[in-house]
Write a structure and sequence with these properties.
With 488 residues, the protein is an alpha+beta fold. It has four domains: 156 residues, Ubiquitin-like (UB roll) (Roll), CATH 3.10.20.30; 77 residues, Orthogonal Bundle (DNA polymerase, domain 1); 112 residues, 2-Layer Sandwich (Uridine Diphospho-n-acetylenolpyruvylglucosamine Reductase, domain 3); 113 residues, Enolase-like, domain 1. The protein is 35% helix and 22% strand. The chain is built from 17 helices and 20 strands. The strands form five sheets. The chain has a five-stranded mixed beta sheet with strand order 2-1-5-3-4. A five-stranded antiparallel beta sheet has the order 10-11-16-12-13. The protein has a four-stranded mixed beta sheet with strand order 6-7-9-8, covered by helices on one side. Helix 9 links the parallel strand 8 and strand 9. Helix 3 crosses helix 4, helix 10 packs antiparallel against helix 11 and helix 16 packs antiparallel against helix 17. It is globular and about 70 Å long. The protein starts with 5 loop residues before the first strand and ends with a helix.
């Protein structure tokens, strides 16, 4: 097999690797092979942020974008063609970087274990926005935990504007970095075997199809925010990895007059603002899926593809009537997202087939999407129950309704019996009561560490009631507004 190295910039140093196990994470590489120990391991699951580093990539018209990621759940091969920036190289000679000096000035560090992660999250934020507001700072730092300071001093440090700060070394090397990264992207696809484990990162859909033909049992890697846990938490070993993040056709994101089309390898952070514009509750829910670091790496294709019964996006997509394009050897087929799931961790995906894109309909007049995520923590936690309810109404009746739930069955699943109690009828208390009872025909949930079966059923029924009450309040508000306008 022809070998091509994974190549990237470590700070400003060019690195070429073809003898590192593909199961090695970026954090392991930094600490154990580069002996750069500023990035810490606190959880090995992307929850605490102590391992946060920053990736710079060339996007659009030869501009660099900077994003924070969790090094502990990012496989080393996935950073090909990017610049990996660590806390070790922020300081410029004897001069601390602005974000470091701000932490000192605002007394943002005590024991210091979490400090590098906070610094790197702040660094990524200020590279994109030198004068962030408080909401932007809180979002950027939400994936970093500290047990010492109480966060106020850290937030104050990140709020301090960097607009007038001297250029850092990365700004001075900007054009050189752009050129180097463009050169790296023009190189052949990384492909190597180390410790009997193989890695390949195809650049287009034809190369991907070819690799799947040769290794049909290979594991597909997109963001890896869930897959990596099998290695870091369960100590599994992945024999063959095919990385999708460099496949051009899977990184497309377009809007048509009627749909939003998202390539399966597009990270959440790239498409969430657009989705939130059309479906505000969907934007809010995505923020709860994971931290900024997780959303910078995690993908919609991965969230669907791993077929978890508690994945947050599938119920929402099912309720919206979203479709997905599956591809195999150049032949494509389009299915509803709800038809993708067969049984626990089983899907209709065939050997050598992969998810190409997801198509989400834009909302029309009279349509409403309501989303409810129930979890032990508000943010960055797995759902016990997730309810997605799509309602289309005319003046008096529900003309269409789709209700999908996560955490209630072996797959994300629609509540057909409950829907039948509501479709074609007025949105009234009596019909809601019948629909709540019908949920017991749709689901027989299980008990586990997150919730009992009885709790899940009661919560699901209560969420349907909550949706009804919110719709009633919404309709009342519209009626009041109409009366005011008519009176005026």
């Amino acid at each position: 097999m022809t070998t091509h190295s994974v190549q990237f910039l470590l700070n400003n140093e060019l690195i070429s690797l073809n003898n590192v196990d593909p199961n090695v994470t970026v954090l392991q590489y930094l600490r154990e092979q580069q002996f750069q120990t500023g990035s810490k391991e606190g959880c090995a699951s992307g929850d605490c942020g102590a391992c946060t580093v920053v990736l710079a990539e060339v996007k659009g018209d030869q501009q660099l974008t900077y994003k924070s990621i969790n090094a502990c759940i990012t496989f080393i091969g996935s950073i090909h063609g990017k610049q990996l920036i660590t806390v070790e190289h922020l300081k410029d000679g004897a001069q601390l970087h602005h974000v470091q000096q701000s932490m000192v000035d605002h007394h943002g560090s005590q024991c210091g274990f979490c400090t590098p992660g906070f610094v790197m999250s702040s660094f990524a934020l200020h590279k994109e926005n030198p004068e962030p507001n408080r909401a932007e700072v809180i979002e950027a730092l939400a994936g970093n935990l500290c047990r010492c300071t109480g966060y106020r001093s850290i937030i104050d440090a990140a709020l301090e504007s960097s607009a007038g700060s001297p250029q850092d070394s990365f700004a001075r090397h900007y054009q050189q970095t752009v050129k180097q990264l463009i050169d790296l992207k023009s190189q052949p696809q990384p492909k190597f075997t180390a410790d009997a484990h193989s890695f390949v990162a195809p650049k287009n859909i034809d190369e991907l199809a070819f690799e799947l033909t040769n290794t049909p049992n290979a594991t597909l890697l997109a963001g890896g925010t869930d897959l990596a846990l099998s290695v870091t938490q369960n100590l599994a070993t992945i024999e063959q990895l095919i990385y999708l993040g460099n496949v051009e056709e899977l990184n497309t994101f377009i809007e048509t007059d009627e749909n939003i089309v998202i390539g399966s390898a597009v990270p959440y952070s790239a498409f969430t603002p657009t989705l939130a514009n059309y479906y505000p509750e969907l934007g809010e829910m995505i923020e709860r899926i994971g931290s900024k670091q997780v959303r910078n790496n995690g993908t919609l294709g991965g969230n669907i593809g791993n077929a978890s019964p508690i994945g947050d996006m599938p119920p929402a997509l099912i309720a919206l009537g979203a479709t997905m394009v599956l591809s195999k050897k150049g032949i494509e087929r389009t299915i509803l997202v709800e038809d993708y799931f067969v049984d626990y961790k089983r899907t209709v995906l065939q050997s050598e087939e992969f998810i190409k894109s997801i198509q989400i309909p834009k909302p029309k007049s009279g349509q409403t999407l309501k989303l409810y995520k129930i979890s032990k923590r508000i943010d960055d936690d797995i759902s016990a129950v997730l309810a997605a309810i799509f309602i289309e109404q005319d003046d008096k009746h529900i003309t269409d309704i789709r209700m999908a739930f996560g955490g209630m069955a072996a797959i994300p699943k629609r509540a057909f019996s409950a829907e039948a109690e509501l479709k074609g009828k007025p949105l009234m208390k009596g019909h809601i009561t019948k629909a709540k009872q019908a949920l017991t025909n749709d689901f027989q949930p299980m008990s586990d560490v997150r919730a009992s079966d009885q709790y899940r059923m009661r919560v699901a029924q209560n969420l349907l009631e909550k949706c009804y009450l919110e719709q009633q309040n919404s309709n009342t508000s519209k009626l009041i507004e109409t009366r005011v306008v008519n009176y005026a």
